[in-house]
Design goal:
Radius of gyration: 18 Å
Low-confidence stretches: none
Structural class: mainly alpha
Largest sheet: none
Protein name: Glycine zipper 2TM domain-containing protein
Order of helices and strands: HHHH
Strand content: under 5%
Shape: elongated
Helix content: over 70%
Number of helices: 4
Length: 86
């Protein structure tokens, strides 16, 4: 009986996490969400397994993902500007 309850809780947690991800993906604009969603998912999972700190991991992952996306955008813009000058 206890195993069935645990399995049900795991399924419910996974379903809730997927709904939250879908809600954030739908609510966030693509410009603001670039890098954040991917980082939040990875950080949330890592934080959960590192000691049940999924929300903290998701927040840190979002910040890091956003930082990386901005870096990539600046790099792409500088490369585009360099090609336009020739």
């Amino acid at each position: 009986m206890l195993t069935g309850i645990r399995e049900g809780m795991i399924v419910m947690k996974i379903a809730t996490a997927l709904l939250v991800i879908v809600a954030f993906a739908g609510a966030a604009g693509s410009a603001e969400a670039k890098g954040c969603l991917k980082g939040a998912v990875v950080g949330g999972v890592a934080g959960h397994y590192a000691g049940h700190h999924g929300m903290l991991g998701a927040a840190a992952g979002c910040l890091y993902g956003r930082h990386r996306a901005n870096e990539q955008q600046r790099l792409q813009q500088s490369q585009d500007n360099g090609q336009n000058r020739m």
